[in-house]
Design a protein that fits this description.
Layout lengths: L2 E5 L4 H17 L2 E9 L6 H9 L5 H13 L10 E7 L1 H11 L4 E5 L6 H4 L4 H8 L4 E4 L10 E5 L3 H4 L3 H11 L2 E8 L7 H14 L5 E7 L3 H11 L4 E6 L25 E5 L4
Parallel strand pairs: 1-2, 1-4, 2-3, 4-5, 6-7, 6-9, 7-8, 9-10
Antiparallel strand pairs: 5-10
Length: about 280
Amino acid sequence: MKNILVPTDFSSHAMAAFETAVSLSRRTGAQVYLYHVIEVPEVAEMHELMAWRESGGEGSMESADGMLRQLVMNEAYHDIRPVYSIDYGTPHKCISAKAAGEGFDLVVIGSHGMSRIDKIIFGSTTEKVIRNTLCPILTINDTISCFQPSTIVFCAGIAAEQACGLETVKSISLLYNAVIHIVKVSTPEHFETTRQSRMAMKTFAETNKLAEYTLNHYNDRSVEEGLKHFAEDINADMLCMPTHGSSGIRHLFRKSVTGSVTGQIAIPVLTCRIPGT
């Protein structure tokens, strides 16, 4: 892990993501890049440009530069020497393009920022970044006080999906001496016996030379609910799962089908988009 991208909108979630990147940098020596995108209309009509100017859009660069400069110059981070850059555009498109174009190993991003309330749970910038970025994404909620994972849940799936994000998980588990809890969620639509699951997971763990790990078979109504419930049952402090570009992890951030409020996923979630999706 050499380069970590941290998109920021200066929200509490973005700051928690930055602190997480700082923790990783201090253990790996990775360079931390703060990145702020000033949103402008994609296809701007005259009235949209006028509204943008009136809202202070043209003065945003100076304001953002000042805040980022103050952050990177903070003595608390002198040992990692973070750097920053600012662009104009559509946030999720700029973030995905920068991650791909500059070869970042990891993107650490807040679970949501200062967007409108109707975008916080579904359709946020973070969700779009997850769906459109190929490198691993570590999503951070602002409730995290210190990134120190010791219990990591790893979602087992079909062969093509299982390898997705594995190297990043292995790296983090070694850095923090964490145990990886491999889990296969069996659902009514995709049932698999415990014996079948455990044999496949054991082969997977041995083939990939995992050090500290456990094998777990979990039954639930859906994979999303199973992962969330299993993580809660073992008090996990990080979850890793592959994601399809078309669906992302939006089901983890909204209410369950029973109508009960599951709340947000409070622990860090590492996702990796499956190539070709």
